[in-house]
Amino acid sequence: MYRLTTYLESTLYPTKASLPPPPPPTSTKLTPTQPLPPPNRTKPMKILALGLSRSGTDSLRRALEILGYDHVYHGFDVPTSGNPAISRAWTELGRKKFDRREEEEEEEETITLRDLDVLLGHCEAVTDQPCACFAEELLSTYPQAKIILNSRDVESWEKSIENTFGKYMKTWEFRYLSYFETSLYWLKQVFMMYEKGYYQGSILKNGRRVHEEHYARLRGVLKAEGREFLEWRVVDGWEPLCGFLGERVPGVEFPNGNTPAQSAERGARVRKVATARAYRNLTAAVLCAGAVAIGGIALLFRCRV
């Protein structure tokens, strides 16, 4: 089993003791209420597409689904699951990989088949983050899977990251409103795992370097292990993809889309119900605080009379 090496200082990724507090008592759902089922893999993992987000991951997902692979895990599976326990489980895997454990600094933690199959047991293929953040673990856990390194040129990738992840992480919803609704809170923790864990403190500052390191490292690992892999970009279309996978080229145009604007609109639509619930919780908190303040002032005034 692949042994993890924790290489980030605790100042870059918070230890368990310094993690953000849980949602405040005003939340209608303080903890995930839909527990994850035990791992139950009934079909093999066939494809690991290990490119970073904004590297044609959604187009690749749709293409693999057209080819008949079921299910293809994508980053949007996290918020669309309707279960904050999914976000929480990915966050815990991030802590397992990136945290430096203060009490046992010399002991490494292992991400197991069980850990991954709890989240991916229903899948035949994966793409996008959070999976790309655990590329080496996936390679070790699913040694028979075919490997795709989907990518794009670093300049356009960096601009796309700034217009998606960068913009969302500056929003009121991400920074403050997430503390008033459970699913938004745990989704934020997944993004923080990307930011402070994989991107070593800042996606915007370190993105280009991490992008280059990600692909160089995986190429090195795959070549050292003698594993065949496909270097692929969206512009390559069906032919190299189908040739590598041993599939017939479909008689449909290769799927494309998911621009930064489309991604933002899709994300907002997915989070709409949770955001409305968070605003209700925030309103309730403000009203309660106001009532307490008025009561305190009234009591103080009465005591002085």
UniProtKB/TrEMBL annotation:
The chain crosses the membrane at residues 282-301. The keyword Amino-acid biosynthesis does not apply. SUPFAM superfamilies: P-loop containing nucleoside triphosphate hydrolases. The keyword Transmembrane helix applies. Residues 13-44 are annotated as: Disordered. Keywords: Membrane, Transmembrane, Transmembrane helix. It comes from the Eukaryota. InterPro entries: P-loop_NTPase, Sulfotransfer_4. Gene3D superfamilies: P-loop containing nucleotide triphosphate hydrolases (3.40.50.300). PANTHER family: P-LOOP CONTAINING NUCLEOSIDE TRIPHOSPHATE HYDROLASE PROTEIN, P-LOOP CONTAINING NUCLEOTIDE TRIPHOSPHATE HYDROLASE. This is NAD dependent epimerase/dehydratase.
